Amino acid sequence: MSTVLHWATLIAYVAGGLVSIAYLGKQRAGLYRMGLAVLWVGFGLHSAALAAAWAQDGMLPAANLRQSLDLFSWAIMGAALVVNLRLDLKIMGAVAGPLCALMLLAASVLPKVQGVTSPAFKSLWIVAHVLAIMAGYGLLALTFLGGVLYLLQDHALRAKKLGPVFQRLPSLGRLDSLSHTSLVAGFLLMTIGLITGAVYAQMTLGSYWRWDPKEVWALITWLLYAALLHTRLVQGWRGRRGAWLALAAFAVLVFTFLGAGLLFPGYHSFASLAGFGGATP
Fold first, then answer.
1. Which domain does 141 fall in, by range?
2. Fewer CB atoms inside 10 Å of the end CB: C or N, the chain?
3. Total domains present in the chain
């Protein structure tokens, strides 16, 4: 059941992304609404697939790299659709659709392995920890995308080479609003995720902090985003400086999510079981 829903989701994300890209070229409102509707359908299918896998395994599907990529894709699409309700950025579907489809495709080619099955990983604390962290990562991915689009648009404006694609990008102000909105919400959720993870570690392992490599990199990531939020709110670092810092912070986030889980041994390591099995993000 979940496999069928997985591939249906992938098809919907590809279709929604292509229709959204077509809208950028044709500028027809019907194409925008159609692309957005297909992406919402895909997100619904994606949610159903994750729920089916959860029901089948009896635990949140985030026990290995394959499942974590799947969940990250879901978080990015959910963040993109929800934030778009507030900001109505016409380019969102053209960016989020292909990105999430690629992540799902990457997840589908990874080996299927049995992840952690300990009852400890079925706790509601773990569910809250993983969902908060992944939702935060999804929103912070939008901060990154907003920064990339901001720098592209800013470069085009400075060079005075505005082709048809750049004329269809949102204004610098709206792109900065995207980065700001997703940063605030993403940082809050990431903080909640780290707190719930620490509380559960104390409950099960007897310590809030064990110097696990992924814990260390998660703290580094949190500090970078705290600095980014501080520079925006207190020092007024918006625009290009804020965009570049958002790109640097997201690079560390991706390393925390993938690199720290694959390269370093620990109880969060993706390599703790054969075939990229492992613990939660």
1. 2-272
2. N
3. 1
